[in-house]
Amino acid sequence: MKNYNEVLSRCPLFVGMEPPDLDSMLACLDGKIKNVQKGNPVFLEGTPARFVGVVLSGTVQVIREDYYGIRSILAVLQPGELFAEVFSFAGITSMPVSVIASKDSEVLLLDCTRVLTTCTNSCHYHNLLMKNLVQGIAQKNLALSQKIRYMSQKTTKEKIMAFLLDQAKLHGSTEFVIPYDRQALADYLGVERSAMSAEISKLKSAGQIDTKGSWFCIRNFMPNLPFVYH
Amino acid sequence: MKNYNEVLSRCPLFVGMEPPDLDSMLACLDGKIKNVQKGNPVFLEGTPARFVGVVLSGTVQVIREDYYGIRSILAVLQPGELFAEVFSFAGITSMPVSVIASKDSEVLLLDCTRVLTTCTNSCHYHNLLMKNLVQGIAQKNLALSQKIRYMSQKTTKEKIMAFLLDQAKLHGSTEFVIPYDRQALADYLGVERSAMSAEISKLKSAGQIDTKGSWFCIRNFMPNLPFVYH
DNA sequence: GAATGTCTGTTGGAATTCCAACAAAGGAGA
DNA sequence: TCTCCTTTGTTGGAATTCCAACAGACATTC
């Protein structure tokens, strides 16, 4: 069996664990490694949701099929990334998405009940694993809530400002760099790029913000801000 | 100390636990009961996020203050309901919201690290508690993802149909009753009620759906591309 | 330097949504 | 039955957004 420590240490589920701990952890969890060839499924929609997946090598895609079979890619996952955890832990009976390898891939599958059950020999890092798991899902939850708050704003301008003010809070400064280019920001906020660009220009000429590329600066800042995520 | 078993048994965190189990559970977790008078805070924005809260009696509101100090009510919580769990478990340093009692209330506060750490005497139900916790957060996660999927649709009509087709899947039938009236559905989808009503009428006269009140039925809806999902 | 491609800003007409106001359809209670 | 009240449907003009097309800035490659 190959050594996947380097990949696993990049996975948020295993932060705080060193290679020897990882090995005992995996043995304790009875993780299964599955090889999947390009184009083949890791699992298909409708199958029981019982596993947490970790990409070890290659690339897999999470795919949703709507009512009439039209497919859309929900996520593209690289080595170290987690998948299917939310479905499995939510206790739903069957997966509402398919996971397909878009390159020859290896994935680690962990039984979700085993992850949640403290083993009888109570290995030292099982508790850390659960903390990492809960933290990861909770953080995803926060991220989704934030996105909903931005998208719930009525106008494009309000969406932009809601996002930027949060970013200012996050960075603890009126001046910051966002992790998106214009197209990605528009996609994230659920608006049209060109319309967003126009609104950003208006905000700029109104003196409310300044920006160049991914750098932004909020003007007229009323300091009201002490909270930082993460 | 009063007996809160009736309330706690309604809390998703404690499903599967009977009164005697609950008592030992609470003792193990060292839960603190806090009395809060109407108008007073359970905690304020900016304070450390270390507790999971359960409303025992009264009513509390989760309140967010935006950049300009304008308050909005994010949630109104009744006895048995959980709050602050996502913030605490996400590992953020300080609460981004305030929780205020809108009636004289009692709340149970559980230290989140204690919830996540298996106790040395490893009480029998601690593991069940963690499963309930993870399941609850994961389910909330799914709900948020769905809402985002509906809101990401370009037009009101597409938002409605994305929602209704999911409901049909959920109920396993083309005929079902949704848990919203028109106003609540519009708020949920992030659109204008009157505009939504108009779109529903169009869908009806086009023969794509039928509806009366909260009852809906999907007719021979033909895929009407391009139906962009993402 | 020229050619190419990507990213961003601008623009105008088409499409959609918002908004307010009102009408119609029930339900609850007197 | 008759109000009163809530919910839902309808409508038209204002406001906003979408969409496509294009232009300028910049980086890369040949």
How would you characterize this protein structure?
The structure is a homodimer of 230-residue chains. The first copy, chain A, is of the alpha+beta class. The first copy, chain A, has two domains: 5-141, Jelly Rolls (Sandwich), CATH 2.60.120; 153-218, Arc Repressor Mutant, subunit A (Orthogonal Bundle), CATH 1.10.10.10. Chain A has eight helices and eleven strands. A four-stranded antiparallel beta sheet of chain A has the order 1-8-3-6. A four-stranded antiparallel beta sheet of chain A has the order 2-7-4-5, with no helix packed on it. In chain A, strand 4 (60-65) and strand 5 (71-77) form a beta hairpin. Chain A is globular and about 65 Å long. The interface between A and B is large, with 49 and 51 residues. Chain A binds a DNA duplex (30 and 30 nucleotides) through residues 154-156, 181-183, 191-195, 197-198, 200-201, 213.
Which fold name corresponds to the CATH topology of the largest domain in chain A? Jelly Rolls
Sequence of secondary-structure elements of chain A: HHEEEEEEHEEHHHEHHEE
Shape of chain A: globular
Number of helices of chain A: 8
State the total count of DSSP E strands of chain A.
Answer: 11
Radius of gyration of chain A: 21 Å
**Oligomeric grouping of the chains:** homodimer
Q: CA-to-CA gap between the ends of chain A? A: 36 Å
Question: Average pLDDT value of chain A?
Answer: 87
Portion of residues within helices of chain A: 25-40%
- Give the total of domains of chain A: 2
Give the largest interface.
A-B, 49 and 51 residues
Largest sheet of chain A: 4 strands, antiparallel
CATH superfamily of the largest domain in chain A: Jelly Rolls
